[in-house]
Fold this sequence. Notes:
Elements: H1 16-33, H2 43-50, H3 54-58, H4 64-82, H5 94-111, H6 113-123, H7 131-148, H8 158-178, H9 190-204
Helix pairs in contact: 1-2, 1-4, 5-7, 5-8, 5-9, 7-8, 8-9
Amino acid sequence: MTAKAEPTDILPAKQARSRARRDALVRAGKKLCEIKDFDDLSVAEIAAEAGCSVGSFYSRFTDKDGFFRAIVGDAAERDRIRTPQPASDPTQPIDDILAEVVAATLAGYRKRRGLIRATIRRSMTEPALWEPTRQRGQDVANRLVARLADSFPDDPQLERRIRFACQMLFGTLNNAVLIAPGPLQLDDEAMEDELLRAFRLMILTP
């Protein structure tokens, strides 16, 4: 089996100890993104959080921008691994399926709001940064289409409604983490209920 190539922003780490230090730096970067804006973070802060030196950082990453791309890529890969496959139980209520999608998506945004905010901002000048998140949204829509198709075999507009509902869901949450316009904020208890209500209406109303 051919080994997976390292992203060009990450310098080769052939020894287990070196890979462990690289992974510690990525974890530190993701943690600090939730405490402080990434653009305000220094390499020294990232290295200190990971328990290593600045020289150790630069021996593993090309620069701070490359490090950010590595963080985004790592988060996307972990999301891909954790993403459940379409349920095989045909008796699962549709409302439960929709509730799962909304709850999981909102939980992800609450957990990584800082990283998502930084990614949105940086993607304005580097659009490729948003590609893993865009693909994640597409995967959610694809799975939902697959799960609901058998329940609405004679509905030619179902797929369009599902995909637009997903666009609404992700767009609302992107807006919430970027500028928090209200009236509901990301941590408001009512956010999940209101998202689900809108999501359900958009998908189930012909």
